[in-house]
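ok so i was messing around last nite and threw this chain in just to see what happens. nothing serious, just curious
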Amino acid sequence: MSLTNNRFRPALLSAAIAAAASASMGAFAQEQDEALEEVVVTGIRSSIVDSVSAKRNSDVVAEVVDAGDLASLPDSSIADALTRLPGVTAVRTGGQASGLNIRGMDGGFVFASLNGREQVTTGGSRAIEFDQYPSELISQATVYKSPKASLIEGGVAGTVELKTANPLDNAQDHTFHVSTRGMINDRGNEIDDADKIGHRFTASYQGKFADDTLGVALGYARLYQPSASSQFVGFQYNGSGVVDGESVAVSEGFEAQVRGGEETRDGFMGAIQWEPNENLSVQGDVFHSKFDSENYARGFRVKTLQNGTLSNETVNNGAVTGATVSGDGSGSFAVFNINDNDSRYTEVLSGGINVTWNQGPLTLSSDISYSEADGEFVNGGTRAILYNDASNPSSGRAPETIHYLLNGLNPGSFTADQSYTDLNTIALTEVGMWPYINNNELNAYKFDMKYELDMGFVSSVEAGVRYSEREFSAQRQQAGYGSEFGGHPTELPIQLTADMVDVTSFGGELSGYPDFLAIDFDDAVALVNAANAAAGRDPFEATSNWGNNWTMIQSGKVNEDVLAAYFQANIESELFGVSVTGNMGVRVVDTEQYSTGLFQLGDGLGTPIADERGVINSDYIVTRVGQEYTDYLPSANLNFHLTDHDQLRFALAKVMSRPPIDKLKSGGGSWFDDGATEDRFNVWGNTSPLLDPMYANQLDISYEHYFEETEGAIVAAFFYKDIESLVTDITIDPFDFAAAGIDIPERNPRTGNPSINGQYQTAYNNEDAGYIRGIELAYTQTFEFLPGIWSGLGLTTSYSYTESEIDAETGLSGESITIPMPGLSKNVFNTTVFYDYDSFSTRVSARYRDSYVGQQLAVDSQLAFFDSETVVDYQASYQLENGVEIVFQVNNLTDEPNKTYFGNEAQTGTIQYFGRQYFLGANYTF
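result:
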């Protein structure tokens, strides 16, 4: 089955955009720089001053983090550094910044490149995991908030461009840098088996040879840090009950866990640059990062509250937030002793070769690049529940009673009438693995041309073409023994032994919760393999298999071939006596996307297909579905230089972001609803290879004033995005399968009844989106004019306000409520106070973001309200005369937790504490 849709999309922006101009600061920027008094700055101040200068000279609306050199940024990853920029917020994973939101839009709308080359992701979405990129290996990071035609398309929210070092730009002939730091997590002693000691190590070299025509840069960065946190997670309110005659919502349950483990990241970058003469430049570079996050989560999961007997209920706004819950062991209410393996293994490889040649006014550049990302999420775990006699499973499950009371955004109480550490009554009922394995590969080829002109208004023109081939493959697997509630007909619960468990207590804010058993996952798998061998079953091994057909249906490939061309005019002129620089252009993008997957027809109606266990099934067919489309993306940037120190920028553009790549998978599972004379044929999957990109028309206006006698600036900006479409899930009932080119069985092979159209669970483009708009205010100032030691003070701060009419409906709180666009915080505030004087340098940074809606990771991903948070970091360093710099650093100084809730703050979601991280070490550059 195949389906192709060719469509032509004309540009939607008005002709006014085509009249706008583009930036090439050129001679004007040079005159400005010569007019400024030269100020030599070092330390943190140097990076901030360089960042302000880069923003000033940018030809688009942009924010810049300038490290100045390899290993200069102190942050654990480049994500931490970027979150201090106006309008940029972080999503904390494991207590540290990972994903980024820009102007209220989440990571799926953020495009990322490294040295001008598109980066693929380790997961199934388009969102880049920025904690994969060590800050020590990045020399500059730029957030483009307005695009230009020469930038690769893909970021409705913005584009993040990362750069590694160009060795021939290094001021010294040879530079070596070594840095080492030890670290302590102050919550490590609260978690059994958790290590609280970690370290960071960095080594880099830049050298120039052959009369400065050959440059080499090498960098290595290692991070080892313990993971230690405690968390309480409340689940969605999908149940109901009656209290005092009134209908109330009841939560599915909750879990209390301690989380531990270790994270190890090894990053490497290398670059070689050859410029034999002023006309030719050849550069090759490679970046590699391997991030192993070995994490476990242990404790209790309480399910399903509504199926127990509730008494002594506490009701808050129509929802039960506390009760005594009892079960006789026969139903689906149970307290599980859980031991999850949440380990992730990710790897990124990116590299390319660039050749640039210029002769007079003409510059030609060609680039070949490769980007690959692999990700594996183990997603394994064990479940143990109470029995009357663990040595005799036929004795049946034991009755149990618990008492819980939520406490809003603070940990509540949880007690139980029975012990969960007695090996005579607790048995292992389920061991499972449900891995996600993703691979992304992208090959790209690019050719660009620039020609300098001497015609007044237009200073130069640029044109180029880029072709890329991307392949995404997703594989779902499963291995399992037993069942959650212990009712598997042949795989009996397994009695635990003392040598494979440890009695474990909660610490910190969860102290007083019942003790539980820490069960080693590998030991549990060994027990399962022994049980399987005794019963003549296959070993415990995760596979894609027909027994769990969702693993086959959710596996598949997506291919995306893109051909893009652009034309851009760079302008340097005067208008009514005001100097104007800028650019205008258009980018034309032709995309062919298609996916190969499995579609379920029913009993014997497909073709024979083998799973990873070698089992043949004839219920499915292989589908290849896709479409081809063309987009026109005009853009324009105007920069009016009102004075030598004042700029007014205007930017207009049409932008696009492609759908999450795993949403483009084809295929789907199916089932029949039996009727009297006709049977409904239904399809599930929630993916579609016919999805269109998400589009927006946007406007940016900003005023920038740069100080004359000190370093710094005041910036005020306004932005407006008209979002044309968003990707969302939908159920269409009934759905006309034939009209969509989907052939369904004529009859239900089970009943022989004719098939009729049923429901179709798919993904689609919601054209009824809306606007996102906001303001950004930024202030950076160095205080050289202050007397004596106070002259080393400096401040950089920003405030962003963002609002949107885009909303959605959710019922996770027990009633249908309207939620704002995920990722959007109305108020965001960042500030850094820094001080550099003689050999001493220090800073304290705070970033605040308002409440927002995001994905709470529980048993299943759930949308929840994230409470506002303020994260504070501190750093200090002292330069010794022998070249050694002593560094002290504290991340998450106030131990800020993650807190989420559902319809109101009384409906507790996640409360997770990560701890403070203390670093002490030394840098040495020679």
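not much to say yet. The radius of gyration is 29 Å.
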